[in-house]
Amino acid sequence: MSPSTLLNLLGFLNLILAGTMVFPLLVNWVYGEPHARGFLFSIAVTALSGLLLVLAFKRSPGDLTHRDGFAIVAFGWISAAFFGALPYLFTGAFDSLVDACFESASGFTTTGSTVMADIEKNPHGILFWRALTQWLGGMGIILLSMAILPFLGVGGMQLYKAEVPGPTADKLRPRIATTARILWEVYLLFSVAEVGVLLLGGMDLFDALCHTFTTMATGGFSPKNESIEFYRSPFIEYAITFFMFLAGANFSLHYLALKGNPRVFWRDPEFRFYGGVVLASTALISFNLWAHLPGDFLQSFRLALFQVVSIQTTTGYATADFEKWPAFSQYLLLGLMFVGGCAGSTGGAIKCVRFLVLVKQGANELYQLVHPHAVAPVKLGAKVVSRDTLNGIQGLFFLYIGIFILASLAVSLLGSDMITAISAVAATLGNVGPGLGAVGPMDNFAHLPDASKWVLTACMIFGRLEIYTVLIILFPEFWRK
User: If residue 379 lies in a helix (H) or strand (E), which one and from where to where?
Assistant: First the structure.
């Protein structure tokens, strides 16, 4: 592990981050709002810190090691969350560091939990920055740097493995920079398409951009207090549902489908599982709402479909206050917070492929109890899941549940009731956004104690980087040669 290389590359990431802050400054200028100085200060501090790190520390020769990759990704996200908080502080959107860091981390990790009590009173520049952080975090700042800065001359595979969600990191092209660029091109293509669709649905350009940024990132930061419910538009709801579903699928499949092979979706066992969970959950909640709430079945279906896709993809938008739904529907949504989208998507949580592998492994264990001499490997489609991958999935599942329990205990110890504590941790660790209780879809996290906000901020980063990447840098052995 080379501290010099780590600090040098963190400097480059800060320079990229400073460049992205120009966009909310331009929005601020377009709307004639008096917050330009706050954005200029943020750009200056972030760029200067990056420049100093680049000039003061030199990269070690040779490719990055596994440990270099883990350290750069983990500290890169922590750095982004800290420096991304500066616009909130310098423009006066927040008075406290904890609130600014919470909102920034929620943005970059695409969580969508907020400490803004009144979102719409904030200037357009801040709301745009809030949405842009999610769009950048959705595909990953590290992937962005790999796509546009190949001249760095360091091996990118270790960054890619540490950054891309999922049990494995498959390259679409031999060169990692090319793979990263392909993923970003698909991401950008879908983003442009969604802006166009939302404009057709009656949104103005600003709202269309903000909702596109936060849909494709499965982030859920809406510039409206009522989220998507503000528009009372079935067209907008179905359009956003469609793009959330796309964002929750593996972007490698999207690329292959765009290249002329749409059958890859049906052939992919994880995608079939993902679609099956969405359909089954939507059906169950639709009938549950129809049986207990006023309205026809079509209305119940629309509400259920939107909320199921929003929660499972970990986007976190809302078209209804689902805290008022029957208990069955609420607990099913809480369960979906743990499932998440597909590996290689912008979604969070444990991921469908891991649940699918664990289910198959459980079935194999039962089969071998009946047939103790049988050889029954776990398969995904025609591929046998390796023992290393199985061990990694089991380990992550155990760590995920362990962190969930410990963080829930910590938040409850700090004063939250059981439902609020459990759902707040599930929502932040899974990068979902809203929870239940005092942090429901029509509430926010502003009222929580500062200590709870720090715990939940850590949960967001742990969840976004899938536990291992952050946890490993806490071990003293990691830093020994």
Answer: strand 379-380
